[in-house]
Amino acid sequence: MQKDPSCIGQTLPARIVRQERDYLTARTGDVEYLCAVVGRFRLEAAESETRFPVIGDRVQITPQNDRQAVITEILPRTTSLIRRKAGKTTELQVLAANVDLALVVHALDGGRNFNLRRMERFLALTSSNNIRSILLLNKCDLCEQPEDSIREATALFPSTPVQRISAKTGEGLTELRERLRQADTAILLGASGVGKSALINALLKQDVQRVNAAREKDKRGRHTTTNRQMFPLPDGPWIIDTPGIREIQTWVSLENSEAFADLEELAQSCRFRDCRHENEPGCAVLEALQAGALAPKHLQNYIDMRRQQDALVKSRQESSRLAVKRSWKQRKYDS
Ligand SMILES: Nc1nc2c(ncn2[C@@H]2O[C@H](COP(=O)(O)OP(=O)(O)O)[C@@H](O)[C@H]2O)c(=O)[nH]1
Ligand SMILES: [Mg+2]
Ligand SMILES: [Zn+2]
Q1: Partner residues linked to 136 by β-bridges
Q2: Fold of 5-74
Q3: Which atom of ligand 1 is nearest to the CA of 198?
């Protein structure tokens, strides 16, 4: 890697291509710099978790020497994939920035890796963040009748492309490459073990990612969220591999979410505008349920997600109310 020493101290545009616990790697042209996250971002992140630089961010960097640089600015994000942080917290987490296509991966391995409810949640997350999705049904080499699963997924998500694929045999890879050509930055999403890293390796035709790597633990035994990494595909977009994501809680409105478009449409005919479809009279959603035109689990998933949503909004309002109160107290002491 040739680096131009005259870059030192200059401001350069770059992209975050690797995110580890304490370090980010920024790439400008073909050159990569290791960037410590400066205190300013940590401080700002304490106010709003969404201001911290993440994988996919376009940034300005200032090289300090030929290996290290400082991130001085995050450029405005075209999209951000935001979810509620895993665990009992109200914090938000930006999983990736500037992504325009999500590859939502499930596996046809006969186990629990084909899960329509999980697909619904992933699609709610991506479409509520304005990111297009493709459903990938991987490991189709292990399934005798992939058509049934494809039909099931297509029926539930009529406007999302559903594609069977095998990282092992290469089936469907050409078609996927074709689809990827229209994207700028894609991200692989899915539970661990569905074959995301294997798909990256197959697309790149080389082993860049460790397959079968369970999430690594740090010295304190916590799971780390390290190793989000972005790879340039030959004449294609960038593609981001993520560790397995099981828990998905959106924080934005479920309205306009493709996964629940059918419910939103039915809701237009509910008697009350703010109908919650739980026990209200004149509820078109409950009528459809009675008539057998709606899968009960689909509605339940929607109601569950909305409850989580409401609880999150409420607790965030509460914590910002407390923060305001604290800052007033502080001012009283200061004056
Ligand atoms: N039979 C078969 N196995 C696969 C396929 N894709 C991945 N695997 C296997 O599934 C396991 C998990 O793959 P990995 O890429 O690590 O999953 P990740 O956790 O989503 O990144 C590994 O043992 C892979 O060899 C596939 O298309 N067919
Ligand atoms: Mg992996
Ligand atoms: Zn209703």
Answers
A1: 105, 163
A2: OB fold (Dihydrolipoamide Acetyltransferase, E2P) (2.40.50)
A3: 15
